[in-house]
């Protein structure tokens, strides 16, 4: 994909950088592979706001992605690369030889007409899904399962990639982009390649309205709120006594910098060989 910039005819166009969507080959989704989404506005089943700054936005349909790559040893042809409003990555529409269709995340290098497969005997090439036990060491992978058969949960965002570093005692050692090295059951499936739309990180909306179209509402700093609304609020202007010198924290008083929120004895700690900050797991 590429990016496009604009002549600064208006303030919103001055810093706007948007994808050119040159890789998109089909504008409307496959009807049999979409379902409706009910918007929550950030509210739970009691009607209370549990996630702030969510609301509005354009209507969307959810594309059913085959994160399990459930059809094994059946070749499929990529018939289209599509835009998905629910994720940063692009998606690829597959047509299997038995007539069934499915969506997968589109990796870098996958294009219309390519053949993909899934299973233990599939070739380790871009777009193919294989168990970690048969993927060559050092391969770039994405769309990784954490539990065999559950479906991919790791490395699904635009430009995401991980590396298969080693295998030992029935586990594969995966190095994630954060630097964390994690043990994953070698029977879990992963897809070869890097997730596409790698330029997503360089996109700049250019104006607040584009965020509203995406369902993101405005937010302001805690320091500019009143004391009743935030621990860091109060004072005249940038106050040193009424909140300006307080440690950054959430509206509910939880420290925002340096405070570890991960449980000290979490069950999955035993699968982390090396933390993302370079410290060995105890």
Please write the CATH class name of the domain at 17-201: Mainly Beta
Structural class: mainly beta
Proportion of residues in β-strands: 15-25%
- The fold-level CATH name of the domain at 17-201 is OB fold (Dihydrolipoamide Acetyltransferase, E2P)
Cα-atom radius of gyration:
22 Å
CATH architecture of the domain at 17-201: Beta Barrel
Question: What is the tally of helical segments?
Answer: 3
According to DSSP, the number of beta strands is 17
Q: Averaged pLDDT, please?
A: 93
Unreliable residue stretches: none
* Biggest sheet, spatial arrangement of strands: 9-16-10-13-14-15-17
Distance between the termini: 42 Å
Describe the global form: globular
What percent of residues adopt helix (DSSP H or I)?
Answer: under 10%
Task: Outline the biggest β-sheet.
Answer: 7 strands, antiparallel
The CATH superfamily of the domain at 17-201 turns out to be: Nucleic acid-binding proteins
Order of helices and strands: EHEEEEEEEEEEEEEEEHHE
Describe the protein in words.
This protein is mainly beta and 282 residues long. The chain has a domain at 17-201: OB fold (Dihydrolipoamide Acetyltransferase, E2P) (Beta Barrel). The protein has helices at 11-14, 208-213, 240-244, and strands at 3-5, 17-19, 34-36, 61-63, 76-82, 91-96, 101-105, 115-116, 129-131, 140-142, 144-145, 152-154, 162-168, 171-175, 181-185, 189-192, 272-274. The protein has a seven-stranded antiparallel β-sheet, with no helix packed on it. A four-stranded antiparallel β-sheet has the order 7-6-5-8, with no helix packed on it. Strands 1-2 form a two-stranded antiparallel sheet. Strand 6 (91-96) and strand 7 form a beta hairpin. The two termini are 42 Å apart.
């Amino acid at each position: 994909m590429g990016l496009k910039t604009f002549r600064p005819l208006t303030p919103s166009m001055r810093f706007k950088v948007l994808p050119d969507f040159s890789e998109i080959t089909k504008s409307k989704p496959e009807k049999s592979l979409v379902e409706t989404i009910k918007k929550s506005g950030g509210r739970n089943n009691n009607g209370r706001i549990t996630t702030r700054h969510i609301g509005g936005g354009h209507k969307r349909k959810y594309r059913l992605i085959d994160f399990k790559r459930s059809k094994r040893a059946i070749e499929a042809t990529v018939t289209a690369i599509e835009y998905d409003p629910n994720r940063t990555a692009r998606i690829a529409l597959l047509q299997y030889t038995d007539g069934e269709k499915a969506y997968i995340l589109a990796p870098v290098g996958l294009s219309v007409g390519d053949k993909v497969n899934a299973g233990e005997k599939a070739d380790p090439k871009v777009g193919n899904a294989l168990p970690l036990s048969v993927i060559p060491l050092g391969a770039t992978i994405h769309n990784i399962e954490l539990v065999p058969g559950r479906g991919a949960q790791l490395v699904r965002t635009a430009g995401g990639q991980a590396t298969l570093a080693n295998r030992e005692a029935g586990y594969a050692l995966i190095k994630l982009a954060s630097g964390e090295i994690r043990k994953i059951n070698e029977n879990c499936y992963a897809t070869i390649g890097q997730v596409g739309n790698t330029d997503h990180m360089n996109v700049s909306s250019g104006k607040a309205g584009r965020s509203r179209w995406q369902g993101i509402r405005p937010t302001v700093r805690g320091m500019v709120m009143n004391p009743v609304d935030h621990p860091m609020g109060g004072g005249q202007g940038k106050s040193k006594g009424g909140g300006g010198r307080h440690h950054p924290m959430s509206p509910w008083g939880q420290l925002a910098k340096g405070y570890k929120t991960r449980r000290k004895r979490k069950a999955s700690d035993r699968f982390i060989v090396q933390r993302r900050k370079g410290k060995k797991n105890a």
